[in-house]
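Dear colleagues,

As part of the handover before I leave the project, I'm documenting each prediction I ran so the next person doesn't have to rerun anything. This entry is a single chain, and its sequence is reproduced below.
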Amino acid sequence: MEANRKPSRTTGAAPTDLLETDLAAMMPLPAAIFNLGWYNRVRLGRGYYVSIAGNDYSVDPAAIGRTVDVSADLDRVKVRLDGRVVAEHDRVWATGVTATDPTHVAAASSLRHMFAQPRAAQAGDGVPRRDLADYDKAFSLEQWAM
């Protein structure tokens, strides 16, 4: 080998002469691959989107108000709620892009519709019901009642 035969001023030896010493001093690589990429834990807002590097990714709106784990690698963005994946998108490398899953939009629409409907009181739900006229009688307001 012709490369690196010139002795270094700091070590006094050529790099090729020290190669065997360096290899013997190195530790073996770990068996497990490290979890590489970006990771964060956030509370999912009402908009049901998480932001990564200037882009927004939709999340299942059932996770609104809860803390979710967001991870991103070179190819994918995943959002987990209690270990369960609630969103998975291809990673976008541009900025200002919104990645939306149509199932998340449909779920949000369904939740908005359910929220807009008044809940009817159900018999036997443990909440006592009283006629409002009883209060008029109790406070002598019968003369004002129409």
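The CA atoms of residues 73 and 113 lie 35 Å apart. The chain has a mean pLDDT of 86.

All the best with the project,
I.
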